[in-house]
Design goal:
Length: 52
Amino acid sequence: MSTKKIFIALAAVFTLGLTVTSCSPNSVADEDSLYINPTGIDRSQIKVPTNG
């Protein structure tokens, strides 16, 4: 194979990979809502050991 054909094949694989990755529906921002706690921490429910 010539160098030009190899380069075109690699460019096509790279472009396809980039397209598939950037169009995935999973986003880090979508998962952030699972970790946001609007109520905060209730300090009365925290158990503190008597020795510490």
